[in-house]
Amino acid sequence: MHRVVVTGLGAITPLGLDVPTFWRRLLAGESGIDRIQHFDASNLEVQIAGEVKGFDPRDFMDFKAARRMDRFSQFAVAAAREAIRDAGLEITRENADRIGVMINTGGGGIQTMEREVVTFYQRGPSRVSPFFVPMFAPNMAACQVSIVYGITGPIMSSVAACAAGTQAFVDALRMLRLGEADVMIAGGTEAGLTPVAVTAFANMGALSRRNEEPQRASRPFDKDRDGFVFGEGCAVMVLETEEHARRRGARIYCELAGGAVTGDAYHVSAPDPDGLGAARAMRLALRDAGMGPDDVDYICAHGTSTPLNDVTETKAIKAVFGDYAYRVAISSPKSMIGHLVGAAGAVSGVVCALAIRDGIVPPTINLEHPDPECDLDYVPNVARRMPVRVAIANAFGFGGQNAVAVFRAYDGAAR
Questions:
Q1: What is the CATH number of domain 4-247?
Q2: Per the UniProt record, which residue ranges are transmembrane (predicted)?
């Protein structure tokens, strides 16, 4: 099977509209969480979110095309552009059918859905947009990337809740290993910040209610955590077979060495309390990569800041890593950007690649009062310089979907 490497990165996040800005601010421990600005949230119980700020789709694509896309697709087109340029990848008629797209999501065009339903009831059937269906359909982020950049290889999308972004890397890895494409544009995107969606999560009891201190609201592994902060954004990787990347002289960030997906078969929103599905995903991903637990230097945790997830993920890590769990560095970017749902795992993959490249691990901010049940090394509050040769990205979603991807420093040696 082909080895797979990472050659390009793109990101649209609450910390910036490109990878360098996102990474600089993440390492500095800055928070991109604030009071909601996209709509009037003054009558909602939860009034904070990790919003993408200053995003104008016209900076990234044709205005007419942008008007026919939901925000989640606009994010994907923008992040893909950065990743393709970062990879130095030229897409031509000759190679377009050997390039594929795998852009996953948790919900698809939720903003379009909510807006058009309101239009139907307030203004009548004739005012519903004829572009409604091709705007909200979850596969449209992948399709729009294909259309905008002329990619004619396999175009796919899976809806996998909070595991979606990482699952995109796992599925793309499998396609590349089997030779079904030479290059995959893979990642996750989400733009579900609407009054109804925020209210729905709040009514579940899933969201933090720290409206008066938004930057301190997301507190993974802290005993005072009270829920996650809803966010939006997108992250994309250019993944290639090693042969293809070396043939064209591409700069290589790292190797995508393995991955796995599993199911809890437990509950629609709560994780298995013993973390059995999450632990199995980590074990299988490491086995797929041909590595053991003690090879791992860094875990980019799911780390949502909910009472259930953080304890469960800690249990799962201990089950897989044993005593070594206390020596591996772990951190959660969600402490700074919130939970980007379908994009969360994709962002974690970008973090893993950059941690390997730069030899530095971002912090978990707001970790002030560690939960006694969360007693591992979560890199509290300050980034840490350290060698990172192997990093794993965890993503665990509603419905019990679990996805884990393993990234390894690329040395060019035969395996």
A1: 3.40.47.10
A2: none
